[in-house]
Amino acid sequence: MTKSMMVEALASAVDARLDAPPAEALMAIYEAPHLEREKRQFAEYLLVDRAHAVMLAEQGILSPAAAAAILSSLVEIERLGPAGLPFDVARGGFVFQIEHFLATRIGEDFAGRLHTGRSRLDQGPTVRRLFKRRQLLDVLDGILALSEVLSRVAAQHRTSVMPGYTCLQHAHPTVFGHYLLSFVTKLRDDFERLEDGYRRLDRCPLGAAGLAGTSWPIDRERVAELLGFSEVLDNAKLAREAYYAADIISGLSFVMSTLNDLATDLHLWSSTEFGFVECADEYCGTSSIFPQKKNPTALEAVKFNAGNAVTWLASALATFRSEGTGDVVMREVPQLDAAFVATQGSLQLMTAVVASLTVHTAQMEMVASSSWATATGLADEIVARSSLSFRQAHHIVARLVRDALKDDVSTAQVTKAMLDAACNKVGIEPIGLVDATIRGALEARHFVASRTSLGGTAAGEVDRMIASEREQLASLLLRQDKRRSLIIASRDKLLMAQMSWLNMNADGLS
Question: Is 284 within 8 Å of 228 (Cβ atoms)?
Answer without folding.
Answer: no
